[in-house]
């Protein structure tokens, strides 16, 4: 059974540009969530999608956005990149958005903003 | 506000030297506590889920326990391949939705 797949794995962008990251959840999983991981802050929750609807959102500026498609695949977009956006972006999926469902992570997308 | 605190931040053990990692939490409406292992440059790998105080789970050299305020990850006779960062996370019910909060992790180094 394939795990959570994230693309691209590595990318370098210039300040002011925008970036789109993609996530394919485990087959059958309908909930997808996104996290930002930096050395000093640990994993910070960005948002969660379930059945194409954003269910929850963390404390990030509006430059960070996401969406989920009918096949549960998800994308997140960061506009007007800042140096501080350099981080590992992790996507996670679970069967549903509720108790009893384990969250499985992808390998992440490493974003470097220069 | 929900808080998850892991200690110690870093731990260095000799191979075979057993120890415990701590995850204390201050949340209301716990819906599960998770332990993950993360190797450098990779995504977190799921280890355990605990739901209620008194629950214990084991996997190879690892054993996770849960009380009403904290969880422990016991590592028995660790090997160098157990070196990784161990993350704790809690799921709570907040504002009509489930929310997951992670601790900052404990970086474990096991020396041969």
What fraction of the residues of chain B are assigned to beta strands by DSSP?
over 45%
Strand content of chain A: over 45%
DSSP helical segment count of chain A: 0
Radius of gyration of chain B: 14 Å
Largest sheet of chain A: 7 strands, mixed
Oligomer: heterodimer
Helix content of chain B: under 10%
Most extensive interface, chain pair and sizes:
A-B, 24 and 24 residues
Mean pLDDT metric of chain A: 93
**Main structural class of chain A:** mainly beta
Through-space gap between termini of chain B: 41 Å
Main beta-sheet annotation of chain B? 6 strands, mixed
H/I helix tally of chain B: 0
Structural class of chain B: mainly beta
- Sketch the topology of chain A as an H/E string, one letter per element: EEEEEEEEEEE
Mean pLDDT of chain B: 93
Number of DSSP E strands of chain B:
11
Rg of chain A:
13 Å
Cα distance, first to last residue of chain A?
Answer: 37 Å
Report the helical percentage of chain A.
under 10%
Low-confidence stretches of chain B: none
